[in-house]
């Protein structure tokens, strides 16, 4: 069987974008793309209108692991089963129902969608064992373009270059500090560290996460500058991961986010139970 990276090069981003996105996320760059989407979250926390809403709902402050798992599971359901599948349609419906309860601007929605496109591309460019090809970039873009359509978003930029221009301009205009930015970021950083180290090592681990944040993001989150040494160590660690990824090759079995055991749902989950619910309505 051809390597998955080679298979992608024979696909058409316009018609095969779901297949391209699946292969990239589950075979070619599973670890890198999941990390990139975690850091994409940080970029949304730098926008007061977004972090303020997250703080207001209490989901990221009171139940950060559940909020994280719910977000991942909804996206993995769509990615792994396809948007036209029964589970894919259920996940999109659950996502739209959850978002529809809040007054979220189309601008903010577009920005969040743009981070799901560009943070993976940028992360892979900087830290993975190879950059993405143009077909891979276009596949991710076309896939999220279709998801945006099913979310009923308006004025979605129709080319990769135009959407990246929107992403950069939005950050320049909307990144600014608010207390809710740092509150949500701190909760998420502790959650991420908890995946790898015990709680007593969080203090040592935080600077290495800070080291991967660019200056505009760091300033909007009110995070102190990190020493050059810590930045070097963090990047060398990622370079070492990329080296072992290169020599180990792509996993033949897909790395599926929906099959991972999660403490939030020890007995499994139903799609209609994921996410937030209005007062008096509980999914579980």
Automatic annotation (TrEMBL):
It holds the Pfam family MPAB_Lcp_cat. InterPro entries: MPAB, MPAB/Lcp_cat_dom. Residues 54-238 form the ER-bound oxygenase mpaB/mpaB'/Rubber oxygenase catalytic domain. It comes from the Bacteria. PANTHER family: ER-BOUND OXYGENASE MPAB_MPAB'_RUBBER OXYGENASE CATALYTIC DOMAIN-CONTAINING PROTEIN (PTHR36124:SF1), PTHR36124. This is DUF2236 domain-containing protein. It comes from Algoriphagus oliviformis.
């Amino acid at each position: 069987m051809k390597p998955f990276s080679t298979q992608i090069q024979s696909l058409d981003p316009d018609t095969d974008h779901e297949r391209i996105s699946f292969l990239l996320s589950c075979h070619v760059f599973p670890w890198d793309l999941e990390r990139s989407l975690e850091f994409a979250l940080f970029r949304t926390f730098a926008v007061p209108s977004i972090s303020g809403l997250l703080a207001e709902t209490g989901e990221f402050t009171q139940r950060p692991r559940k909020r994280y798992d719910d977000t991942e599971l909804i996206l993995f359901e769509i990615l792994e089963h396809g948007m036209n599948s029964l589970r894919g349609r259920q996940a999109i419906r659950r996502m739209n129902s959850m978002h529809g309860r809040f007054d979220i601007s189309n601008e903010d929605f577009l920005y969040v969608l743009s981070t799901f496109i560009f943070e993976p591309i940028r992360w892979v460019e900087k830290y993975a064992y190879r950059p993405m090809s143009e077909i891979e970039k276009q596949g991710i873009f076309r896939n999220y373009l279709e998801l945006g359509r099913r979310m009923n978003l308006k004025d979605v930029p129709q080319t990769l270059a135009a959407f990246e221009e929107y992403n950069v301009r939005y950050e320049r205009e909307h990144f600014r500090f608010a207390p809710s930015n740092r509150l949500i970021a701190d909760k998420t950083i502790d959650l991420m560290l908890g995946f790898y180290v015990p709680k007593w090592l969080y203090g040592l681990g935080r600077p290495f996460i800070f080291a991967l944040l660019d200056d505009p993001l760091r300033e909007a989150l009110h995070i102190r500058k990190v020493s050059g040494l810590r930045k070097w160590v963090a990047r060398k660690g990622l370079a070492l991961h990329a080296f072992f990824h290169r020599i180990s090759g792509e996993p033949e079995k897909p790395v599926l986010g929906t099959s991972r055991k999660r403490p939030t749902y020890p007995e499994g989950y139903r799609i209609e139970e994921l996410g937030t619910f209005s007062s008096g309505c509980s999914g579980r």
